[in-house]
Amino acid sequence: MNQFVNHSSCTALLVGKKASVDGSTMIARNEDAAGGINPKRFIVVKPDEQPQRYVSTFNGFQLDLPQSPLQYTCTPVADTSDGTWGEAGINSENVAMSATETEFSNTTMLGLDPLELDGIGEEAMLTVVLPYIHSAREGVQRLGELVTKYGTCESNGIAFSDANEIWYFETVGGHHWAAERIPDDSYVLAPNQTGIQEIDFNEPEHFQYSADLKDFADRYHLNKAKEGFNFRDIFGEDTQADHYYNTPRVWYAQKMLNPEVEQDPESRTMPFSRVPSHLISVEDVAMVLSSHYQATEFDPYGQAGTPETRKRYRPIGMNRNQEMHILQIRPNMPKAHAAIHWLAEGVNIFNTPVPFFANCTTTPDNFQYTPTDKSSTASFYWLNKLIAMIADPLFAEHNWDAEVAVSESRKFGFAAGRAAVAKGDAGFSDVKPEDLPAWHDELNAETAATITNDLQYLLHQLVCIRAEKMTPTFEKGGEL
């Protein structure tokens, strides 16, 4: 395996409990595979289905696992011959994990602390960490111990959350890492570059790190600053590619959530976290993660600017979107009803997230059925990918009918999701605790069916619109 291969390049958005509209913590991410197609499934892993020893088919990483794992949701790849890639989920203790945001250590760090080709990587992290933790802080501690002991084959950013805290964990080199507790009143947009800035080694409630992190930097004279310890500057990259691939995503997300702030799209000094100008909702998160520089000269579907500006920057919503998760842990709800795993699949510009109460026993069939050898509308993943394939050229042509059809479908999906959550919140107290998971199964299936049916209708609309736009056609004298 080439240690410099970029297996995925995602965008993460983290929202602290005092920055959200209802006091929830939310960790969200677009999983963007290094190609347009990477079929995904959504499943519930029960304790008796969790292996006792993990052996990676991706890079050979092996680990004996603790006994008594927790149940958890996850979104693995459909074809696990090259690894599991569980990516995101919530366990039965209402701890969420999103793994991972691909990042890059600088060449100095890679030379001094090389990556471990058979160390823990994105492919394994969720499976060997999420079932064994009871808080976000425990997640940082467990993953930190694994990276220190076994090394990692990649540089990554990993998010953990529970009802009270969000932590962002970043690896640098093969064996070093740091994690920061995201301020409750702030959000973070993380592209594919190291983000954590100043670390205060006297604040263990807000920072955790590998034991020799500071000594290592001192020993090799890595810190160029006259004062402070800027993790991003010491261990991260700042290449020309970052200025068109990474920093513009931070700029646009912060433009959406802090429109009053003027910044340069290519600035590397934009802050890691910000206090938003307004409280953030699930819909806000989804809109950021589906954005493509709308209303700027950089929108690939836009008419402003030039052909060059419209292709200058890497957008957040793009062809490589495979699944988007918003892992929401809600306050003022009993533990058995507090966690929601919102899930969208396909290209986020054209889709809508479906809310699943995480305390469930299964997922709908069309979320589990994801063939790898054919496109099928019986699969939620493929249904969304097919919609994107037809909608994309229509959007590029500024086809009004297609744009309206997609917009109306997305509005329907958001409304249906909100209605489903409200229905669950109104009815869960009438359900016996032991019956709640099965009741959630029924509610989740009903919500998924409602949104699936609407997406099937959207596909029909787009096919009808596209049928009138085919190249082989004929008009004479204004008559068909």
Automatic annotation (TrEMBL):
* Hydrolase among keywords: yes
Keywords from UniProt, A to Z, are: Dipeptidase, Hydrolase, Protease
Q: What class of enzyme is it?
A: hydrolase
Alphabetized GO MF terms? cysteine-type exopeptidase activity; dipeptidase activity
**GO BP terms, alphabetized:** proteolysis
Asked if the keyword Hydrolase belongs to this entry, the reply reads yes
Signal peptide positions are: none
Q: Which InterPro entries match?
A: C69_dipept_A-like, Peptidase_C69
Q: Which reaction does it catalyse?
A: an L-aminoacyl-L-amino acid + H2O = 2 an L-alpha-amino acid
Pfam families xref list: Peptidase_C69 (PF03577)
Which family is this sequence assigned to? Answer: Belongs to the peptidase C69 family.
NCBIfam families per UniProt: C69_fam_dipept
Q: What is this protein called?
A: Dipeptidase
